[in-house]
Amino acid sequence: MSEKKIVAYVERDMEEIIPFFIEESKEEIRQLIDALRTGDYEKLREFGHKIKGSSVTCSEGFQEMSDIGLAIESAARQKKSLKEIQALVRAYVDYVSHVEIIYVD
């Protein structure tokens, strides 16, 4: 089974901050997983909101990441099953862990 290649096309003028953005996203994963384990819908909603906003603010190239954040935020707001939210969190972890950044002019 092959993994889907995840590519984000990011403006070259963002090249200095993107590594920090990705590292921060990786560090937040533990907190996101903790919120999932404890069933803290409010924290899950907050994380989803933050993911949605920060990824698009950083670059339009992270639209897929923003969409995942929106889905987490929406699912937590609607108090969907934790299993459903877990799948979204897994998609976020996969994205952050495997995204390849390509800088464009």
Automatic annotation (TrEMBL):
Residues 10-105 form the HPt domain. InterPro entries: HPT_dom_sf, Sig_transdc_His_kin_Hpt_dom. The modification Phosphohistidine is found at residue 49. It holds the Pfam family Hpt. The keyword Phosphoprotein applies. Keywords: Phosphoprotein. One of its GO terms (molecular function) is protein kinase activity. The keyword Phosphoprotein applies. One of its GO terms (biological process) is phosphorelay signal transduction system. This is HPt domain-containing protein. It comes from Desulfonema ishimotonii.
